[in-house]
Design goal:
Helix 6 packs across helix 8 (240-253). The two termini are 21 Å apart. By secondary structure, the protein is an alpha+beta fold. It has helices spanning 5-9, 32-40, 69-79, 98-111, 155-161, 178-186, 203-217, 240-253, 260-268; strands spanning 43-45, 94-96, 116-123, 131-140, 146-149, 175-177, 195-197, 200-201, 226-227, 278-283, 286-291. The protein has one domain (5-291). The strands form 3 sheets. Strands 3, 4, 5, 6, 7 and 8 form a 6-stranded mixed β-sheet that branches. The chain has a 3-stranded antiparallel β-sheet with strand order 9-10-11, with no helix packed on it. A two-stranded parallel sheet has the order 1-2.
Length: 296
């Protein structure tokens, strides 16, 4: 039976499923603006800790490796056992990044059967003239469109970054999904070296976010440094057929609900794109093989 896109995105996936921790989602508000603020009281971005006046012990960096919402919720409750509706002090928040804010918000929206999905791409509002590696969350709004929400941007960050748009409705030209970034680079409309983070940039980086976004559209929202298939290919070994496949991914992943079936078929039908049970996770010290367990 053919899946209905809005029904599909209203259900949890293997990453966003809170599992036995779902009891802590009971009583959460369903309004997006309230969930937006709630997530910001539970997670703190690893790059922003000093802006909140705290120093996080190095051993807490392991919190950045938590892929599953259920694991995140256990760690959040370990740091402080109060209800999720109670904002934590900055030093008691889960250490995370943009992907973690987005995936947690996505999980809460799906808990309320609101169609939601995490998106991987690039933001224009962190560094001038640069497309910064970033994630947001989309939900299906009452005006029957996908609305982008930057769950990371709280009042402090909006002020320091001089954000001039609504973080609850991010314009498409301020957050560039992976497929749009790929097409911009392929068509010569943007320099691939303007896409990335820190000293990591180039078309290979755009390729990674393109495929991570496709996986997210299939409800597999992995860590920004997780790799498999076409992500893990060396740039010099990318063939013409690989490039054609990536161009197709870009076109379909930029589409609306009318291309949902094509997005699912492309992902499920190609081993270079689909997330396997075992992936590589890259860190500063190298990489490790990670078994994702059942459901992949």
């Amino acid at each position: 039976m053919e899946e209905v896109p809005l029904e599909y995105y209203a259900r949890q996936g293997p990453i966003t499923d809170p599992r036995e921790e779902s009891v802590h989602f009971e009583g959460l508000p369903s309004e997006v603006n309230r969930l937006h603020a709630l997530v910001q009281g539970l997670v703190i971005h690893a790059f922003w800790t000093s802006k909140y006046g705290i120093t996080v012990p190095e051993e807490r960096n392991q919190e950045l490796q938590l892929r599953f919402v259920s694991d995140k919720l256990r760690e959040i409750r370990k740091l402080e056992s109060s209800p999720l509706t109670q904002a934590r002090a900055p030093e008691r928040r889960l250490l995370g990044n943009c992907r973690d804010f987005s995936v947690l918000l996505c999980s809460m929206l799906r808990h309320h059967h609101i169609p939601a999905r995490a998106r991987c791409g690039f933001a224009t509002y962190f560094v001038p003239n640069h497309f910064e590696d970033h994630w947001v969350c989309e939900y299906w709004g009452n005006d029957r469109r996908w609305i982008m929400v930057d769950a990371q941007l709280d009042a402090l960050q909006r002020e320091q970054l001089r954000i001039d748009f609504d973080a609850l409705d991010v314009p498409a030209d301020r957050f560039i999904v992976g497929g749009s970034a790929w097409q911009m680079c392929r068509l010569g409309k943007a320099d691939p070296h303007a896409f990335g983070i820190n000293n990591l940039h180039g078309l290979w980086f755009v390729r990674g976010n393109l495929i991570r976004d496709l996986a997210s559209l299939n409800k597999i929202e992995l860590l920004p440094w997780d790799a498999w298939g076409l992500i893990d290919k060396e740039e010099e070994s990318i063939s013409d057929s690989d490039m054609s496949l990536l161009d197709k991914v870009a076109t379909l992943s930029r589409g609306d609900n009318d291309l949902f079936t094509d997005v699912r078929s492309l992902y499920l039908g190609n081993n270079l794109l689909q997330v396997p049970p075992v992936i590589r996770s890259y860190r500063q010290s190298g990489f490790e093989e990670v078994d994702l367990g059942e459901g992949f």
